[in-house]
């Protein structure tokens, strides 16, 4: 029986993809990399900041030291944080608040499992913080999805066993991580059918058969 739901953040609860894209695009242009596209940005979904940087740099033809790469990642993040200042609850995806309220009413615990180190800021800006019981994010972990660490930390913080948790994700890396954590998974988002999740729904606005999922 499921007792806790662990939500991915970017692409599941909030739409920050466009802001990530703008920030990476600016960095790419600053570095003289012209070919960074939205398709490349789609590959950064659920991927850590440093791995996302590699996806940008592979579009150019220069090699950089680890120190330079850390500086570039900081530059992107500073610009991304600037963009996040303008975030409001408009960025909360359709059906999210209703789903969180309904699940809490059913007595479920709500956790976040996101590799983003900006999770606290995003939850604050979008007003979602008060719906969440525990946060596991990039600040708590050393290994990114597809490693299960972020979800295992979330389950631990919620005081639940992995088998008592359901992960909701929009990325392949996240679904692989959920399976590795021995948790069931529900895939949403533009690629929901291809993620390999146990349950597949386009978004949280759909008629989700919660009773059979939660009692399985
Ligand atoms: P940050 P999620 C992920 O969040 C994003 O999908 C991914 O695009 C981003 O690179 C990563 O967070 C790190 O984010 O640079 O803010 O620490 O999908 O796991 O909620
Ligand atoms: Mg995501």
Quick tags:
single chain; 216 residues; alpha/beta; six-stranded parallel beta sheet; 6 strands; binds 1,6-di-O-phosphono-beta-D-glucopyranose
Distance between the termini: 6 Å
Mean pLDDT level: 96
Associated small molecules: 1,6-di-O-phosphono-beta-D-glucopyranose, magnesium ion
Helix content: 40-55%
- Secondary-structure content class: alpha/beta
Strand residue content: 5-15%
Radius of gyration: 17 Å
Uncertain stretches = none
* Quantity of strands, as a count: 6
Largest sheet: 6 strands, parallel
The coarse silhouette is globular
SSE sequence, one letter per element? EHHHHHEHEHEHEEH
Question: What is the subunit organization of this protein?
Answer: single chain
Biggest β-sheet: strands ordered side by side in the sheet: 3-2-1-4-5-6
User: Can you count the helices?
Assistant: 9
GO molecular function: beta-phosphoglucomutase activity; magnesium ion binding
Keywords: Carbohydrate metabolism, Isomerase, Magnesium, Metal-binding, Phosphoprotein
Organism: Anaerocolumna chitinilytica
Active site: 8 (nucleophile), 10 (proton donor/acceptor)
Molecular structure report:
By secondary structure, the protein is α/β, with parallel strands linked by helices. The protein is built from 9 helices and 6 strands. The protein has a 6-stranded parallel β-sheet. α8 (172-180) links the parallel β4 and β5 (184-187). α1 (17-30) packs across α4. The longest helix has 19 residues, at 66-84. The N and C termini lie close together (6 Å). The model has no long low-confidence stretch (mean pLDDT 96). 1,6-di-O-phosphono-beta-D-glucopyranose binds next to α3. Mg(2+) binds at residues 8, 10, 169-170. Substrate binds at residues 8-10, 24, 52, 76, 114-118, 145. Its cofactor is Mg(2+).
């Amino acid at each position: 029986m499921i007792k806790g739901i662990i939500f991915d953040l970017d692409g599941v609860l909030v739409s920050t993809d466009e802001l990530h894209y703008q920030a990476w695009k600016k960095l790419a242009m600053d570095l003289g990399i012209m070919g960074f596209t939205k398709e490349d940005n789609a590959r950064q979904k659920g991927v850590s900041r440093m791995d996302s940087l590699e996806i940008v740099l592979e579009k150019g033809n220069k090699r950089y030291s680890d120190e330079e790469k850390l500086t570039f990642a900081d530059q992107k993040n500073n610009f991304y944080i600037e963009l996040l200042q303008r975030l409001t609850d408009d960025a909360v995806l359709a059906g999210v608040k209703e789903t969180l309220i309904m699940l809490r009413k059913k007595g479920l615990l709500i956790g976040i499992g996101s590799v983003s180190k900006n999770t606290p800021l995003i939850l604050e800006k979008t007003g979602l913080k008060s719906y969440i019981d525990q946060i596991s994010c990039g600040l708590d972990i050393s290994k990114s999805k597809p490693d299960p660490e972020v979800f295992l930390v979330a389950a631990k913080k919620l005081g639940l066993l992995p088998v008592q948790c359901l992960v909701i994700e929009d990325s392949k890396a996240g679904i692989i991580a959920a399976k590795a954590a021995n948790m069931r998974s529900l895939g949403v988002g533009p690629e929901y059918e291809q993620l390999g999740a146990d349950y597949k729904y386009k978004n949280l606005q759909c008629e989700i058969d919660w009773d059979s999922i939660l009692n399985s």
